[in-house]
Amino acid sequence: MNGQIPLVVLGFKTVTLLLGGLITYFAAKAAVKSRSRGLTYLAVGFGTVTSGSLLAGVADQVFGFDTQTALVFENALTMVGFAVVAYSLYVAGRSSLGGR
Questions:
Q1: Residue 63 belongs to a domain
Q2: Which of 27, 74, 24 minimizes the C-alpha distance to 46?
Q3: Number of domains in the chain
Q4: Residue 47: predicted pLDDT
Q5: Which residue, among 21, 22, 20, 39, has the nearest Cα to 31 in the 3D structure?
Q6: What pLDDT does 84 receive?
Q7: Which of 28, 35, 58, 70 is least buried, going by the fewest C-beta atoms within 10 A?
Q8: Model-level pTM?
Q9: Residue 57: HSE in the Cβ half-sphere, 13 Å Cα cutoff
Q10: What's the burial of 26, exposed, middle or buried (CB within 10 Å: 0-12/13-18/19+)?
Q11: 47-63: pLDDT as tens digits
């Protein structure tokens, strides 16, 4: 373990991973059912944000990566994930206006 993490932080991270996984699951399920490109991107975006949080914690706590490096990695994946989420809204907006 790479340092002590307060129990409240572990609780918040656990809830974040559970909710992020749930959002990703429901978005992916809806994407398959509706064949919506926008929902597919939404699922990928939330999956990226969620996996970034998980992978950064694993890198820090299990593999002993420097905490700052793990934080940079997590924030980079969060940024990429939210960019994909934003793009999913753009795609969904275009398709609802009749454009492809």
A1: yes
A2: 24
A3: 1
A4: 97
A5: 39
A6: 98
A7: 35
A8: 0.86
A9: 16
A10: middle
A11: 999 999 999 989 988 99
Structural domain includes residue 23: no
Domain extent at residue 44: 29-95
* Six-digit token string for 72: 């940079």
| Cβ-contact 31, 45 below 8 angstroms | no
In a domain, residue 76? The reply is: yes
Angle between helix 7-34 and helix 37-61 axes, rounded to 10 deg: 150
Q: Judge whether 14 lies within some domain.
A: no
pLDDT digits (tens, 9 = 90+) for 2-29: 457 789 988 999 999 999 999 999 999 9
**CA atoms of 17 and 54, how far apart (whole Å):** 7
Q: Which two tokens stand for residue 47?
A: 């999956």
